[in-house]
Design a protein that fits this description.
Layout: H1 15-18, E1 29-33, E2 36-39, E3 44-47, H2 50-53, H3 62-74, H4 86-99, E4 105-109, H5 112-129, E5 137-142, H6 150-154, H7 159-165, E6 174-176, H8 189-207, E7 212-217, H9 232-244, E8 248-252, E9 277-280, E10 292-296, H10 298-306, H11 320-335, H12 338-359, E11 363-369, E12 372-377, H13 393-403, E13 406-407, E14 420-424, H14 432-455
Parallel strand pairs: 3-13, 5-6, 5-7, 7-8, 8-9
Antiparallel strand pairs: 1-2, 2-3, 4-10, 9-10, 11-12, 12-14
Helix pairs in contact: 3-11, 4-11, 5-10, 8-9, 12-14, 13-14
The chain binds pyridoxal-5'-phosphate.
């Protein structure tokens, strides 16, 4: 129930921390069914972004609910320094098999930020164990996002967050992400990707290669770049640079992993650029339980174990219920070939979005891989002129979308200076008919927004 002491617009929920006073209340969730979310007023919303790109199996999935019930009747929690659990062992085995050689050991935590922290600390401890204690710097990308804990934020490229939290962080170098839509003058997509890879090598040389521990990047971007996919040469160049300088390559696959891009790992699209460490969360439990993992090689684990063991952990490491959910999710991803469906439905979604871009002037770019897609919003398709930043276009579109029964996720990086985009990343279980419904609702939403911007003289 609401508490009369609080503003009726905000209430006591977590939104009181995150939304400005007076902001309209969000719909209250009653239940979920497949790709639909239903509020307490009975309104139905198509989950067009899988929440924050997490609900990969949709809602109320019978297999996952059954696994949760079965596990709850046995044991929900047992601390890993006191007990092994079958759920942990089976989850680690399945995950290692799907991720493949070199990424076949999983350190299991509660979410993406913790998994990023774990990956960085593991890389550091491995360096110390192998006589390379001088290596500690982690290079990230600008823009880029790796989570909100202080360590993950330190390697994220978000000027706005760094303005506020910078003094608390030990931020290291960031190199430009190879953005593909808004290119610097005199660059093609390829030449800019090459320049961005070169910038990594220059940064390593400038810092002193013997001090650089790792380079972290999202192989397919999320909210920070709007589903950025670089050209193939970028991945290979980055891999070669890291190898040349003994720098660990970390792929942050918190959004892109677990089948979303059409392969189990986005890394599987570039086999010759395989990372040393991969980080997963979100789709790994499809939102049914807090879960994340840092994947490394058996050899790295042995080295660290022989040096005394990984000096790192949380109460909810390898949480038994979360691992049981993870097992059921991975079974479903594999048996229902959800990565295959993501590839097919992603291609269909792209076709529909391209048709929509012909008719709606707000769609500047469509990019992504599989069902990790984004559209970039512009005020002019020809000149790529942005919608004025103070309009906070994604938030307004998110609001309008709710009125059309579409739940969209939006969060800005760097106050939107690199562009504004909407994630289109529905559950991997989506069907062709449902893709059509999604696009129709998006069409209505963007038409409304275009009308609004025309009335304000922003769109001509
Ligand atoms: C690429 C990436 N890394 C890390 C994170 C952080 O994950 P979490 O919010 O589970 O801590 C996110 C979350 O959006 C993400 O997109």
């Amino acid at each position: 129930m609401d508490d009369a002491r609080t503003s009726p617009e905000i209430g006591l929920g977590i939104q009181a921390f995150t939304r400005p006073p007076g902001a309209p209340r969000l719909p209250r969730i009653a239940r979920g069914e497949g790709i639909w979310l239903i509020d307490t007023g009975g309104n139905r919303y198509l989950d067009a972004s899988s929440g924050p790109v997490a609900s990969n199996l949709g809602h109320g999935h019978p297999r996952i609910l059954a696994a949760m019930e079965a596990q709850a009747r046995q044991a929900v929690f047992a601390y890993p320094s006191q007990f092994e659990s079958s759920a942990n062992l089976e989850f680690a085995e399945r995950l290692g098999r799907l991720a493949g050689p070199g990424l076949d050991r999983a350190f299991i935590v509660s979410g993406g930020s913790e998994a990023v922290e774990s990956a960085i600390k593991f890389a550091r401890q491995h360096a110390v164990a192998t006589g390379e204690a001088s290596r500690w710097k982690v290079i990230g990308r600008q823009p880029g996002y790796h989570g909100n804990t202080l360590g993950a934020l330190a390697v994220s490229g978000d000027e706005h967050a760094h303005e506020i939290f910078g003094p608390l962080l030990r931020a290291t170098q960031r190199v430009p992400a190879p953005l593909s839509y808004r290119l610097p003058p005199n660059h093609t997509v390829e030449s800019y990707a090459r320049a961005c890879a070169n910038a990594l090598e220059e940064a390593i040389l400038r810092e002193g290669p013997e001090t650089v521990l790792a380079f972290i990047m999202e192989p397919v971007g999320g909210l920070a770049t709007g589903a950025l996919v670089a050209t193939d040469l970028y991945y290979e160049a980055v891999r070669q640079i890291c190898t040349r300088h003994g720098v660990k390559l970390i792929f942050d696959e918190v959004m892109s992993g677990a089948g979303r891009t059409g392969r189990f790992l986005a890394a599987d699209h570039w086999p010759s650029a395989r990372p040393d460490i991969a980080v997963l969360a979100k789709g790994l439990s499809a939102g049914y339980a807090p879960l994340g993992a840092a994947l490394v090689s058996a050899e790295m684990v042995r080295t660290v174990a022989e040096a005394g063991g990984f000096m790192h952990g949380f109460t909810y490491n390898a949480h038994v219920m979360s691992c049981a959910v993870g097992v059921a999710v991975l079974q479903e991803v594999e048996e229902a070939d959800l990565a295959g469906n993501a590839a097919c439905m992603g291609a269909l979604l792209r076709q529909h979005l391209e048709a929509l871009a012909e008719e709606n002037p707000l769609i500047g770019d469509i990019r992504g891989l599989g069902l990790l897609m984004a559209v970039e919003l512009v005020a002019d398709q020809q000149t790529k002129r942005m919608i004025p930043l103070e309009k906070v276009a994604p938030a307004r579109v998110q609001q309008l979308a709710l009125q059309h029964g579409l739940a969209l996720y939006c969060r800005r990086t760097s106050r939107g200076v690199y562009g504004d985009w909407l994630m289109l990343s529905p559950p991997l279980t989506i069907t062709a008919d449902e893709v059509e419904i999604l696009v129709e609702r998006l069409r209505l939403t963007l038409n409304d927004y275009a009308t609004e911007l025309r009335m304000e003289g922003i769109l001509h």
